[in-house]
Amino acid sequence: MRMFIALDLPMEVKEYIYGKIKDMMKVLDLKWVDYHLYHITLKFLGDIREDELNKIDFKLNEISKKYNAFSLRLKHLGKFPTYGKEVNVLWVGVESNGELENLAKDIQVSFKNYGDNKPFSPHITIARNKKSKMLSFDPIEFNCEFQVEKITLFESILYPSGPVYKVFKTYALKL
Question: CA-CA distance, 114 to 45, in Å (whole number)?
Fold first, then answer.
C-alpha cells in the first residue's frame, strides 16, 4: 500500500481555497488537484507492507497523544521551485508555527526509514505543471484560519486519471 501522513483540511477550507482559485483554473493549463483531496503532507511513507501497519499505527498513536490541537493560517499562492519563472507545482502556503513544526519534526524523525526525507515545507498542492515549465500567475492572498484536531494516515491509490486518497485511520490530537 502506498501511504502518507497528513493534516486533512476541513471541507470549508477546501471550498474556500477552491473559491479563490477557480478563475485561475480556467486560464492556466495545469493538472489541477481535485479540491476534495487538499491536505498538508507531513511525511510520504511510500509503499508499506501490511506487516508494518501495526508499528506505524503505534507510532502515530503515541505522537498524537503528545500534541494539543492547534490553529493554522493560510498565506499566499506559491510555487516549486521557489526561484525563477519555472513552475512544477503550484501551492497554497501555510503559516508555520511552533506546534506544526514540532509535530512535523516528530513525524519526520519517527518515520525517517520510510519514503523520502525531504525537508518539511508546509503547503497545500493545488496543481502540477506537466507541460510548459514557464508560467506566470497573479498573486493571491488567503485569509483563512482553521483548527487542526487530528493527524490522518492516507492510502494513495494511483489511477491514470489521477490519485485517489483513502483515509486509512485518523489520530486525534488532545483538545
Answer: 5
